[in-house]
Amino acid sequence: MRLTHKIISSFILVIAVLSIVNIFSVIYAINHSQEEKLKTEEVLFAQDLADRFVRDIVEDKAETLTDTLFKDKKLREEMIEYILVFDKKGYLLSNTYLEAIPKQLLKLNNQFSRKDNFRLQKIINRRVFVYDIAVPVREGIEQVGAIHIGFKGVYILKTIKEALSPALVGVLFIIVVAVLFGLFISKTIVNPISKLRDAVAKIGAGSLETRVVIKSADEIGALAGSFNKMASRLEETTALMVQAGKFEAIGKLASGVAHEVKNPLGIILQGVNYLEGVIPPENKDASEVFQLMKDNIVRADNIVRMLLDFSRVDELYMQPENVSILMDNSLLLVKQIARLGNIEIVKEYQAGIPKIMADKGKLEQVFINLFTNAFHAMPGGGRLTLRSYLCRFADSAYKGDKTKNDYFSPDEEVVAVEIEDTGQGISEENLKKVFEPFFTTKGPGKGTGLGLSVTSNIIKLHGGIVEITSQLAKGTKISLWFKTAKSG
Ligand SMILES: Nc1ncnc2c1ncn2[C@@H]1O[C@H](COP(=O)(O)OP(=O)(O)OP(=O)(O)O)[C@@H](O)[C@H]1O
Ligand SMILES: [Mg+2]
């Protein structure tokens, strides 16, 4: 059963029960008041008859009595069913029936004790309900007869019916109001709940982008808000999991292929070296070809090494290192490129900063990757600034949530490293993808797209964070944060 139906039917049920109770109490009250009225007004009427008839009864004037009885009955025809007059011995002296009198009326009790002035009883006469009021006819204190007046029950029922019809209209009205109220509740509560239920079902079926639109400031609105937040988190986490899965698959694939390719590459290089030795040195063309072959084999070998690094970054040999020195070491290897490329190098190293725990070789590899990227971004020359300094993580330029990250507490002192170039920058759209393996904007054969993804993996394994900020045509800044060697 739908919630709307449940609400409406509960309303109707409650109202119906209340109405029935109410109707019965009204019936009881009317019935009671009618009986009271009979006991007062109609008993007086009967006693009045008794007083008027006492002489005729004593003198046995049945005919005169009958005459008067008919007249009296006629006056209140709609209420009075019968009037019976009995004599002292209980014989029926006179009555208002034209036809034969019902037998049970002859058996009515006509004896009254001294203190009884009337008797009221309900009887069924000729299959209808009658209130019988009996009064004694007394001369002085002696009972000389009795009078019975039958009041029609229908008359009382009619009064009840008259009183109840507006009540029934009222009940109907309340039921209509209840249905409308139920529909209103349904619109304000049930509909949003159904929306949420449908949304949950959709998310369950895999449509993680599902959101609910409920614009209300109450708890339901808040629930919808929380639901949407939950859905967003779910979507993000699922995307991350998918990404992580992809990385793992790519890593396995890459290391498999790299292993297969590494040894043949070595053999080819040996072969080339051997052939170079057996060809006469004056054959310049051959030497050039051999050099070209060796360069490309080295290039291929570098790529293979990158792939292996990408999949094997978990083997680190950590020791305390000065990060500025590591940057300088890496710079030595690529300095020549900078000079040729007309790139100025500015160093802003803070003196005396704590060491960090690092795998020297891996971190140098990271810096070489980052410097190379920067050089590639400044084909017409530019400036590369290298910074290292100590700061509280809470005061750092880190863009993510500083209170909730997996690596640092806000109060922690961290070693910050910045590598900033004045190159072409990265578009907003590409910025989201640069850490993905194999994402590159460099032409075929020029970049593998693994540099930054390897960098990110290595930094994570160092318990650090890497962040990239960039502005098109202005430059790019890579920021790194490391734990200090003493704290971790
Ligand atoms: N300093 C930078 N300035 C501008 N763009 C950059 C910078 N660093 C990285 N990028 C962009 O990010 C992409 C990915 O970089 P990444 O180092 O992962 O791969 P790659 O340099 O293309 O190839 P690889 O490093 O494997 O030879 C680059 O192709 C480039 O578009
Ligand atoms: Mg690169």
Estimated structural class: alpha+beta
CATH topology of the largest domain: Heat Shock Protein 90
Describe the strand arrangement of the main beta sheet, using strand numbers. 2-1-5-4-3
Shape: rod-shaped
Total helical elements: 10
Secondary-structure element sequence? HHEEHEEEHHHEHEEHEEHHEE
Give descriptors for this structure.
Heat Shock Protein 90; rod-shaped; 54% helix; 3 domains; 5-stranded antiparallel beta sheet; alpha+beta; binds magnesium ion; binds adenosine-5'-triphosphate; Helix Hairpins
Characterization of the model:
This protein has 488 residues and is an alpha+beta fold. It has three domains: 3-159, 2-Layer Sandwich (Beta-Lactamase); 208-311, Helix Hairpins; 313-483, Heat Shock Protein 90 (2-Layer Sandwich). Helices cover 54% and strands 19% of the residues. The protein has ten helices and twelve strands. The chain has helices at residues 3-58, 62-75, 103-106, 153-204, 219-278, 284-311, 323-340, 360-377, 428-431, 451-461; strands at 80-87, 92-95, 119-125, 128-139, 142-152, 319-321, 343-349, 356-358, 382-392, 413-421, 465-471, 475-483. The strands form three sheets. The protein has a five-stranded antiparallel β-sheet with strand order 2-1-5-4-3. A five-stranded mixed β-sheet has the order 7-9-10-12-11, with helices on one face. Strand 4 and strand 5 (142-152) form a beta hairpin. Helix 5 (219-278) packs antiparallel against helix 6 and helix 7 (323-340) packs parallel to helix 8 (360-377). The chain is rod-shaped. The model has no long low-confidence stretch (mean pLDDT 86). Bound molecules: adenosine-5'-triphosphate (ATP) and magnesium ion. Adenosine-5'-triphosphate is lined by residues 369, 373-374, 377, 421, 423-426, 430, 434, 439-442, 447-453, 476. Adenosine-5'-triphosphate (ATP) binds next to helix 8 and helix 10.
